[in-house]
Automatic annotation (TrEMBL):
It comes from Adonisia turfae CCMR0082. The keyword rRNA-binding does not apply. InterPro entries: DNA-bd_dom_put_sf (IPR009061), MerR-type_HTH_dom (IPR000551), MerR_fam (IPR047057). Residues 4-73 form the HTH merR-type domain. Pfam families: MerR_1. This is MerR family transcriptional regulator. The keyword Nucleotide-binding does not apply. Keywords: DNA-binding. PROSITE patterns: HTH_MERR_2. GO terms for molecular function: DNA binding; DNA-binding transcription factor activity. Coiled coil: none annotated. CDD domains: HTH_YyaN.
């Protein structure tokens, strides 16, 4: 193995905790990690790449069960490319929909910010009122 990292090194490199890495291994999101003669985990560069990809899937909201399904297809059926692609395409569509919803929400927030700027401008141009109006 050209590069063998400890669990602490992988945690630091990926931003995941050692607890999370062990959990991911227990629930088969990560293939069993090679162990050194002392029993300590030793992660390969390939393991790191998979963990980084797995992290991207988690950050985009892919459920653990779906990732487990993807990982199982990858490990047990390496030729099942079409099935893995279909899983990723379905997840991509979900992410695109979430992005569209976020963009719509951001548009409303931007409108509200502009609305407050206009109110601030008007207030700065007029004398101070004794009972300011509340705005939402």
């Amino acid at each position: 193995m050209d590069q063998a990292l400890t669990i602490q090194q992988v945690a630091q490199a990926t931003g995941l905790s050692t607890h999370t890495l062990r959990y991911y291994e227990r629930c088969d999101l990560i293939a069993p990690i090679h162990r050194a003669s002392n029993g300590h985990r030793r992660y390969s560069a390939q393991d790191i790449r998979w963990i980084q990809f797995l992290t991207k899937l988690r950050m985009t909201g892919m459920p653990i069960r779906q990732i487990q399904q993807y990982a199982t297809l990858l490990r047990q059926h390496p030729d099942a490319v079409q099935e893995r692609r279909a899983l990723l395409e379905a997840h991509r569509q979900t992410v695109v929909q979430q992005l569209q919803e976020l963009q719509e929400n951001l548009t409303v927030i931007d409108w509200k910010i502009q609305h407050y700027k206009e109110i601030e401008t008007k207030l700065s141009e007029t004398p101070v009122q004794t009972s300011p109006q509340r705005t939402l």
